[in-house]
Amino acid sequence: MQRFVHALAALILFTAVANVPAAVAQYTVVASGLQSPRGLSFGPAGQLYVVQAGSGGTTGKITEIRNPWAASPTTRDVVTGLISVVAREGEAVSADGISVRSNGDIYAIMALSNKGLGFPSLLGHLLKVSPDGQFHDIANVGDFDYSWSNTNFDLANDFPDADPYAVLALPDRIYVADAASNTLDLVLPNGSIEILAFFSPNVLADSTPTCIAKGPDGALYIGTLALVDSLAFGHAAIVYRVDPKAADPGNMGKVLNIATPWATGLWPINGCAFGPDGSFYASEFITTPQFSNGDVVKIPFSSPSTHTSLTGGTLLFPAGVAVNGDGRVFVSIGSAEVPQGQVVALANH
């Protein structure tokens, strides 16, 4: 399985310096000095949480940004010391996805899997974190997905693999998107896991699901990276719709076919969220075959073929997206740590 981290890391190291966008008044910096910032999620009091994949060792973090809309936001680390692994190409992975419930409980998903790496750790695990920084291991999603992909090796030609990347914690259930097994998982309250959907490969490589958002209709919308196909053919990323009420984990035919394309023609998607007006927002990791010019696009729920650029392609490797109750869009940039990352607030649109 061709994980997107491995596919992009060498290109990042080669092109990052040349493709840093010029400074423009498209956003304001909310937090800086972050190491590979990825997922974003708002808490019940308006605080914004970001996960940092770090730079190797135990540098992974969960960080809270207080008053992110204000002139002088403040930050504090809620959790530090999470394992961070750096691939030989230079890309770090650790906590990649985050989602906060209305009661303040924080859920973070760790990348990769113990089975894939060959040593025990928190990698691949779903963590439940309290606001004071205490965390509990909820489920070993990575190892479950690794085993599932090994059992279903006929679905792609380079299984097994696993890389849980995005999490969505709703009041009554938790979903995880795995960017390497290409699955949407349901994590049940007892820690057991079910596969709800498999995202079929593109023409050249994996679909690589990277984000989950709940739509106004109650369905789940999952964005894909589709990196290799986008570099070869242009904007090949897709946002899929999955109706969880129609899911049947015990029916492989349903698992393979429940995901249907909702929005197409996008550059590699690295994060997504719905705004208060029902619009869908997706971060596009790049918007050129030269591996540059990241962006955030806005898609009206009633018109998924309408894609409005919010920054004109001026972002450096954007990742997580979050939208507050006023419709202000926040995005993490520099997610590949070239240079150090930031969380920014986009200009109002």
Helix fraction, binned, reads: 10-25%
Helices and strands, in order, run as: HEEEEEEEEHEEHEEEEEEHEHEEEEEEEE
Strand order of the largest sheet: 2-3-4-5-6
Instruction: Provide the residue-averaged pLDDT.
Output: 91
What's the CATH superfamily, by name?
TolB, C-terminal domain
Describe the structure using short key phrases.
4-stranded antiparallel β-sheet, 41% strand, 349 residues
Report what the structure shows.
The strands form six sheets. Strands 2-3-4-5-6 form a five-stranded antiparallel sheet, with no helix packed on it. The protein is built from five helices and 25 strands. The chain has a single domain, classed as TolB, C-terminal domain (Neuraminidase, 6 Propeller), CATH 2.120.10.30. The chain is mostly beta strands. The protein is globular and about 50 Å long. It starts with a helix and ends with a strand. Strand 13 (183-187) and strand 14 (193-198) form a beta hairpin. The protein has helices at 4-15, 114-117, 141-151, 227-233, 252-257; strands spanning 27-34, 37-42, 48-52, 57-66, 74-86, 92-93, 95-100, 106-110, 125-129, 135-140, 164-169, 174-178, 183-187, 193-198, 209-214, 220-224, 237-242, 260-266, 269-274, 280-284, 295-299, 308-309, 321-323, 329-333, 341-346.
Chart the SSEs and their pairings.
Blueprint: H1 4-15, E1 27-34, E2 37-42, E3 48-52, E4 57-66, E5 74-86, E6 92-93, E7 95-100, E8 106-110, H2 114-117, E9 125-129, E10 135-140, H3 141-151, E11 164-169, E12 174-178, E13 183-187, E14 193-198, E15 209-214, E16 220-224, H4 227-233, E17 237-242, H5 252-257, E18 260-266, E19 269-274, E20 280-284, E21 295-299, E22 308-309, E23 321-323, E24 329-333, E25 341-346
Antiparallel strand pairs: 1-25, 2-3, 3-4, 4-5, 5-6, 7-8, 8-9, 9-10, 11-12, 12-13, 13-14, 15-16, 16-17, 17-18, 19-20, 20-21, 21-22, 23-24, 24-25
